[in-house]
Amino acid sequence: MMPTGVIAAARVTHASGSVDELAAVSPDNQRSAVAQLHTVPDIEEAYVLSTCNRVEVYVVSPTAGVGRAALEEFFGPADDESVVYTDHDESLQHLLRVATGLESVVLGEDQIIGQVRDAYEDAREADGIGSMLEAAVTKAIHVGERARTETEINEGIVSLGSAATSLAARDVNLEGATALVVGAGEMGQLAGRSLVDNGVETLLVANRTVDRADHLARELAADGTTTDAIPLEALSTVTPTADIVVTATGSTEPVLTEPAFDDDGSTQIVVDLGQPRDVAPAVDSLSSVTVHDLDDLESITDETREQRADAAREVEAMIDHEFDVLCEQYKRARADEVIAAMYESAERMKQRELETAFSKLEANGDDLSPGQREIIESMADALVSQLLAPPTKSLRDAAAEDDWSTINTALQLFDPDFQEDTMQSSLFTTGGSVGVGTADDD
C-alpha cells in the first residue's frame, strides 16, 4: 500500500518561551508522551524531544489539519505566543538543525545529538516511529554526526554545563574554589567535568540517589581536586560552603530554597540549569547570592556563536544538501510504492490470462509438460517486464518532478477501480518535498 501521511510539528524552546512556559508543556517522559499522541485518532506516527530547553513534537497524520489539531491540544498549557508550529518541509529542516546543534542555547553543543537518539529510541519503544519519521530522525542523527566530525561547530564550549562554568567564572575565581553540583545526570556530569577542568579545589555532588552521586564524584576526582557525594536531603548543610552552585535536576519542585543559604555577605554564584527551576525565585533576593538561569546564559552563548560563525555556515550548507537528499528519498519511496502497485496489477492480469490459456489448451487435449508451461510463463514474465519498463522510468521521473497527476493517471490506467479522489487526498507537494494531505488543510 502506498504510504500516506504529512509531518507537522510544534515546539516551545528557549528561543520562543520562558523557563516556566517550557515547564508547563514538558511531559513526564518522552515515551509516555508518544504513547499518548498515538491514541489520538488518525495520528499515525509521533516523536517527542523533551530537554531542559526545548519540547518538540513531530506527528504524522493523513492531513496537515489533523496533525495541527493534535499539536494544539498537546501544547494547550502554554501561551499561544510561545508555541511555534511548522509544516512538513519546515519541520524536517528544523529537525536537522536541532540535531546539528544550530538551534541549541550553546551553538553546536554535543549533548543534543544524544538527546535526539534517546528520543528516537523512546518513540520506537512506544510504537511511534513509522516509515516517514524513521527516515526523518535517522537522517537528522546522520547530519548531526557529520556536522561534528566534518566541521568545527563543537570547538570550545560544547554544553550548557561548560557554559555555566564560564558564566560563574565571571564573578568567582574558580582556582581553589568549592563547587556544588546538584543532580548527577548528564547535565550534572558535564557541569562537574567543566568545573574540575577549570581548577576548583573541592567538588561536591548531591543527588537523590547517593550511589549515583558517589559514582560521579569518584569519576570526576582528579589531582588536586577533592570530591565527595552528598545525599539530596543534606543540601542545606553544604550549600553555605560552596562558592559556586550548579543545579541540574529533573525535580518538579525547587530543590534549593532560601533557608539553604547563609546570607552573610559572602559571594555565592548559583547557576540553575533545571527545567522546571531547581532554585526558588526568592533565593535571588538574598544579597550574597546571585542566581543565573538558562536565560542568563545568552551572553556566553552569543560569544560562542561569533566564534563558530564560519562553522555554522558550513553546517547550514550541509543541512540544505541533506534536506534535498531526504526529500528525494521520500519521493523515491512514493514512486516505488506506486510502481509496486502497478506491477501487482499486471501480475494479477498475467496470472489470470495464463490460467485461461492453460485451461483452453487442456480442454483441447493438449497436455503441456512442466517444461512447456515454464516456457510460456517465462514469456509472460518477459512481456510484463518489457511493457512496464518505460512507464516505470516515467513514474520515477514524474515523482522527482512532483508530477503527481501523471502518477494518478498511470494508476487509473492499470487499476480501473482506483479512485482519483483517493490520490488527491493522499498526495500533495510542499516546497519540493512530498507529503500527504490536502492543499487547503491549513
TrEMBL record:
UniProt: substrate binding residues: T51, C52, N53, R54, S104, E109, D110, Q111, Q115
Top-tier EC class: oxidoreductase
Record: active site: C52
PROSITE patterns according to UniProt: GLUTR (PS00747)
Residue positions binding NADP(+): G183, A184, G185, E186, M187, G188
Ranges where the Glutamyl-tRNA reductase N-terminal domain occurs: 14-151
Entry's EC annotation: 1.2.1.70
Record-annotated membrane-spanning stretches: none
Domain Quinate/shikimate 5-dehydrogenase/glutamyl-tRNA reductase: 167-300
Annotated Tetrapyrrole biosynthesis glutamyl-tRNA reductase dimerisation domain residues: 314-415
Biological processes, Gene Ontology terms: protoporphyrinogen IX biosynthetic process from glutamate
Gene Ontology terms for molecular function: glutamyl-tRNA reductase activity; NADP binding
Record key words, sorted: NADP, Oxidoreductase, Porphyrin biosynthesis
Gene3D superfamilies in alphabetical order: Glutamyl-tRNA reductase, N-terminal domain, NAD(P)-binding Rossmann-like Domain
Pfam families according to UniProt: GlutR_dimer, GlutR_N, Shikimate_DH
Record-annotated site: Important for activity: H94
Known role: Catalyzes the NADPH-dependent reduction of glutamyl-tRNA(Glu) to glutamate 1-semialdehyde (GSA).
Family annotation (NCBIfam families): hemA (TIGR01035)
PANTHER family, sorted: GLUTAMYL-TRNA REDUCTASE (PTHR43013:SF1)
Something else known: During catalysis, the active site Cys acts as a nucleophile attacking the alpha-carbonyl group of tRNA-bound glutamate with the formation of a thioester intermediate between enzyme and glutamate, and the concomitant release of tRNA(Glu). The thioester intermediate is finally reduced by direct hydride transfer from NADPH, to form the product GSA.
Domain characteristics, as noted in the entry: Possesses an unusual extended V-shaped dimeric structure with each monomer consisting of three distinct domains arranged along a curved 'spinal' alpha-helix. The N-terminal catalytic domain specifically recognizes the glutamate moiety of the substrate. The second domain is the NADPH-binding domain, and the third C-terminal domain is responsible for dimerization.
Family (UniProt): Belongs to the glutamyl-tRNA reductase family.
Protein name: Glutamyl-tRNA reductase
Gene source species: Natronolimnobius baerhuensis
